[in-house]
Amino acid sequence: MPHLPSPSVPSSSLLHRLRRTLRTPLGVTALTACIVLAVVAVLGPMLFGAEADRVDTNAIDQGSSMAHLLGTDDLGRDIAARVVVATRLSLELTLQATVIGVVGGLLLGVAPTVLGRRLGRLVTATVGVLVAFPGLLFVLFLATVFGVGSTGAMFAIGVATVPSMARLVQNMTASIAGSDYVAAARILGVGRFRLVSRHLLPNIAEPSALFATQAAAGILLSFSGLSFLGLGVQAPQYDWGRLLNEQLNGIYVNPVAALAPGVAVVLTGLTFGLVGEVFAKASGRRAPLSRQQPPSEQSAMAPAPLPDESAEGALVQVHDLRVGFPDGREAVRGVSLTIGHGEALGLVGESGSGKSLTALALADLVPHPGRVQAAEITFDGHDLRSDPHLGTTLAMVFQDPMASLNPALRVGRQLSEVAEVHLGSTRAQARARAVDRLSAVRIPSAARRARQRPHEYSGGMRQRAVIAMGLMGEPKLVIADEPTTALDVTVQQQVLDLLAEVRTETGAALLLISHDLAVVAQVCERVLVMYAGRIVEDLPVAELVGGAAHPYTRALVGAIPTMTTDPNTELATIPGRPPEPGDADQGCSFAPRCALATDRCRSTRPELVGFDTGRRVACWHPVGAVLPLDVRPVDAEAAS
Amino acid sequence: MSSLELRGITVRYGRFTAVENVDLLVPEGTVTGLVGGSGSGKSTLGKAVVGLAPITAGQVLVDGGDLGRRRGRGPVQLVFQNPYASLDPRMTVGAAVAEALPRTGRAARSTEVARYLELVGIDPSRAVLTPDALSGGQRQRVALARALAARPGVLIADEITSALDVSVQGAVLNLLRELQRELGFAMLFISHNLAVVRYLSDQVAVMDEGRLVECGPTDRVLRQPEHATTRTLLACVPTISPAEEAS
Ligand SMILES: Nc1ncnc2c1ncn2[C@@H]1O[C@H](COP(=O)(O)OP(=O)(O)O)[C@@H](O)[C@H]1O
Ligand code: SF4
Ligand SMILES: [Mg+2]
Q: A563 CA to chain B: closest CA distance, Å?
């Protein structure tokens, strides 16, 4: 995961996801097609084998009739029967060649990791050269080498598939081989071969399977091509390509006979494609989302938190935002917030508290199958529920910069695309702006760097590039979700400074999400503290130390070691763990971990209410805060 | 119990020198905090000790013996910064810990796995789960269990709490301190956070631009810093009070 953080959507095993995908219309179609194909391949030769081979000199080159559905060939053999019977050989050869291609590709692809550095480079370079070789030429060359005939053709086509598979596997294993978990295994002394079988192969299984199905479709086509050219299957054996070859002479006399093997090839190719789609769908986790008005009973239930006094001129206005999942779990449970023009607002809380989903809901990016509901979401006076498209007025920065960058495209190109698509710039203008923006985020020698692909960038530079992408337009709001968490701490500071600078220069507002209070305190003016899907406190950064009213905020602050912490005592921690989105939701969700909890806390939920100027807290016993009197009796009513 | 001694360690990437001629002794059973600013070479030094960064010159000695280019399970283990990247997403937690154990029978293995998971406060019944079912703090505990299962004489912890929630950071630090005292391994604790380093370390080493610029008992270094870098670091201890008023 690649890593759009979706804290409350647990990903399941591939098998599980496959099974789920097989139940969709796409899955059912693919499965049916496969079964039909398998049945024809197995039973075809048994049922129609005799008929397909029966020479009948009285019925040579006949057209379509009741006796011979597709007519007969130059020996009077039934063409329909021959097409059906050819299924087995066509499939067998295709699958065998695919196995050769995939296994060879895996071996060559993994080799650089297993072999030493020098041999590994040699393999990589060889594969690079072979990939650049035109595919068809390569097949023809190999077909001559391996000799005419079905076995030769099978090897030729299988071997010709190896380089592209190997390249794919090399790219995937290179990124996995560079991961921390492989490094950890190396330190533990895990041998090269175990490394491959336990860490590399399982992690590339999904994309490899997808590639194999695509390759199979291509191989089927190549095989038919070779047989058609007379280089593949030789008489008396026949596959679809050979049938095509035999019938082509008669295409003006009996066109169906010539077309039938071609149709068989296309249908089978489509089946492979469908299987590929199923794999792709099962491994991908992205899907369209739904955005809904809250059902009226729900908004009636949701008590209205005090609207902020700044409501009018606010840039973002959110009221009673909820993000739920079809199984009934609710991860964001009625969040209301406002962001002023140019304001830097922090959102803090433990992982899983709903910070990311709140941000994703603002950007209309909640992953499937999440459902977003809100009584109000406006952005710059624009109702997001009716039209969620914000174009370039909203910039989004994620924890993993690769979630926003396409690994295959040059960074400059990705940036200029934004300007071309959203701002209607010309190509040259867009390119100039991309370089300008890259230098604005202090990427050294921006013009040269713009021509590089993301993998040539360091983690910190990628994150800068994503920020630069956000700056291609004129954003009014930058949402940064844990922008520094995946970075080396040494780079974190630079990215934070950059965000602060972007804000001063563009006047954009900033919503900075982090689990780290120190990060937020450094950049923001105001902080929202989130717990179990709700905002429990809203306070100025200056009040964090010493002035927080909510026991949870105080516990968070207290858990941070300082230069005066006594090294001989245990660090303060918050006992227990936050509730899961599915847990029973009664009373204050912090109550099980709160030292100040009373019976009232456990039975009735405190609402987020305002006090002082612009501060809000959701707690029955806030520390040092004087709540307005009128909210107190609510509890007395509810308790009675 | 083991000690770790670095002698004249230099790490170069092409023409760039990431670590230059570092001498450092981590006495057995003690904790040395390694601090330094951006790109000062702390992580590279830690990686060099376990063979993940190329040592251009110098020696790594464990208990006085050269670590050299030996293979297999090393006496030095490393816990990484990011618990989301350091566990194989396709491997169960139990299998990850088992990978660190010497090859023995199946039953002996699973009791050992359970023992190490228990040691770091993870319910052994969770051994069958893959990491995506665990929170960041739990993953970091598993990573710690894996490192400890290799029975290291020396543990290197590289920014192990910086990706964790504050609420679990304290728990992981408490656990680490307790385990270090109980098992008695030597530890090189790398962090940019002086407050955290101060809490755990007997000795503090300061790096700047690849060089070790100051090293001494924690109290002394933090009270009477001798090098300008140390003074700067002390002045920018991460704090949650607003850093700049005018921004
Ligand atoms: N593989 C590498 N190639 C080139 N430079 C590197 C590599 N790894 C680290 N560096 C550089 O070495 C310097 C020290 O990095 P690091 O060890 O991460 O320092 P610290 O942990 O103190 O931040 C940095 O400038 C970094 O860019
Ligand atoms: S409402 Fe009660 S349980 Fe909840 S935070 Fe306040 S005092 Fe604690
Ligand atoms: Mg580092």
A: 5
Residue A363 has pLDDT above 70, yes or no: yes
With CA atoms as reference, the chain B residue closest to A568 would be B199
Q: How far is the CA of A606 from the centre of ligand 2 (A)?
A: 8
- pLDDT tens-digit series, residues B40-59: 889 899 999 998 889 999 99
Which domains, ranges and CATH numbers included, belong to chain B? Answer: 4-246 (3.40.50.300)
Closest residue by Cα to residue A236 from A368, A89, A131, A439: A89
- The model's confidence at residue B240, banded by pLDDT at 50, 70 and 90, is low
Inform me whether the pLDDT recorded for B16 exceeds 50. yes
The yes-or-no verdict on residue A619 having pLDDT over 90 is yes
* A560 lies within 8 A of chain B by CB: yes
Name the residue among A1, A184, A559 with its Cβ closest to that of B167.
Answer: A559
What is the per-residue pLDDT for B180? Answer: 92
CB contacts of B192 in chain A (<8 Å) are: 489-490
Cα distance between the two ends of chain A: 48
Matching residue, tokens 């009197």: A629
Contacts of B99 in chain A (CB under 8 A): 185, 188, 190, 198
Query: Ligand 1 atom closest to Cα of B158?
Result: 21
- Show the domains of chain A with their CATH numbers: 14-282 (1.10.3720.10), 405-472 (no CATH)
- CA of A622, nearest ligand number: 2
Asked if A329 and A8 touch (Cβ cutoff 8 Å), the reply is yes
More confident residue, A315 or A585: A315
pTM: 0.73
CB of A596 shorter than 6 A to ligand 2: yes
Give me the interface pTM, i.e. the ipTM: 0.85
For residue A321, give the nearest of A342, A305, A344, A345 by alpha carbon.
A305
The runs of H, that is alpha helices, within A581-631 are 599-603
Q: How confident is the model at residue A634 (pLDDT cuts 50, 70, 90)?
A: very low
Phi, psi of A254 (to 5 degrees): -135, 75
* Contact assessment for residue B148 and residue B116, using Cβ atoms and an 8 Å cutoff: yes
Q: Which residue of B has its CA nearest to A353?
A: B165
